[in-house]
Amino acid sequence: MAIKEWVKLNDGQSVPLERALASFDQFVLHEREGDMEEVSARIDSVAQSIRLEQPDIADATPRQKARLIATYLCRHGLTGIADSSEYRNLQNNFIGLALNSEGRAALPLISVGIFCSVAKRFNLIAQPCTFPFHVYAIVMAPHDQALDGRPLEHDSPPEIMYMDPFRSEGEVFRNDLEAQLRTMGLSHGHYEILLGVSSTAEMVRRTARNIIESIQTTRNIHDLRTSSELPYPEADGALYGALWALLLLPDENESLFERARYQPYLMDHLEKQFLFDVQLVEMYMLPQFLGSQHSTQLLEALQVIRIGDSMPKQVKRRTSNASKSVQFKVGQVFRHKRYNYQGVITGWDVECAAGEPWMSQMGVDRLSRGRHQSFYHALVEDKSVRYVAEENIVDTEMEVGVNLMRLAGRHFKRWDETSKTFISNIKDEYPDD
């Protein structure tokens, strides 16, 4: 659904700002609140709370409405960031998370997105501004009315004001914004564009770039080995969504070659973690590169994935005497006896099926039960894939960790609370598990 919203934008169709931004949340939800419908419902709820708190807001002037809305959002922690040292935290890029967060967790762009979406519920015209590096909101009075409610001449230009809901509930004056642009070395000829209304597509692109910068910054700060170590939301899903956005909504000044640089990264994520999205790439991305060398590369990559997916899998049943000795099943969660990590079983062999060099390196024959015991393919909470001897697997009823739950969600149908196992979606390979 997220991809379809961005495709609509690229086709020139109108998509509400809240839905365009909430599309990013779809890539990191993992059963948490915050899909597009829930984001809209939450904004409706916020607007209703403002009406209850300010029963006369319907009669207020456009300037008064803007300030009342910004004040409420700021006071209730729906805009801004509580701790400036956490500015680049990944979670601050998602409107659904900001609306459901217990604290202030919204970058300027997301703060403006929330402000504009709430303002719309009060028939107030508010849109993001094109200003570089920091997103402001532009509030417009109706064509026949001034911001203070006075009637205007029919041919008068609409009055506008600027707001910065990320920092405060007050008005930002154009002279101050122009002064900032001068400090940046920008000429007066650029002011009208940079102080004008930004498109929703541009807000999506800026959000995608912010997500990528957050991931890169967090990795540098914490010297992380893998993105699974990043705090929620998961970096892989966030990056995957950002890549889709940049590929589907190209900047008009961006060449096909420049846009195609994102393609290998998206295909790498697709092949490793999002195989179910192959059809989406064929439907929505491939047409954008048709007739270029990039479409040939994309077709080849898709063909490799398709061939691998269509290869017949070896069926492993539990009907033979040997297979009946396999103690654990696909979908069971376990703890490693020696290293204490948590994992989930994704497959098994009656005995070690690795090559001699691997068995020698891993000391398989030094295990108490050696190579002639069952071995299990396992997905581990650190995102690694392991091959574990049965004697090292400890059945556990401990709570499944957040990282493993997110990761397993891509490989299994669902988590079954009753049996405390993940329900297998590879019954063609392991029909008895």
Give a structural overview.
The protein is built from 17 helices and 11 strands. The protein is α+β, with helices and mostly antiparallel strands. β7 (375-380) and β8 (385-389) form a beta hairpin. α2 (17-25) runs parallel beside α9, α3 crosses α6 (108-120) and α10 (235-248) packs across α12 (263-273).
Could you describe the largest sheet, including whether it forms a barrel?
A: 5 strands, antiparallel
Can you count the helices?
17
Which band does the percent of strand residues land in?
Answer: 5-15%
Pick out the low-confidence regions: 221-231
Structural class: alpha+beta
Tell me, briefly, the overall form. elongated
pLDDT average, as an integer?
86
Could you write a compact summary of the structure shown?
The protein has 433 residues and is an alpha+beta fold. It has helices spanning 2-10, 17-25, 36-53, 62-75, 95-100, 108-120, 174-183, 191-194, 200-222, 235-248, 256-260, 263-273, 278-289, 293-310, 321-324, 356-362, 402-408; strands spanning 125-128, 137-140, 160-163, 171-172, 333-336, 342-349, 375-380, 385-389, 393-395, 412-416, 421-424. The strands form three sheets. The protein has a five-stranded antiparallel beta sheet with strand order 8-7-6-5-9.
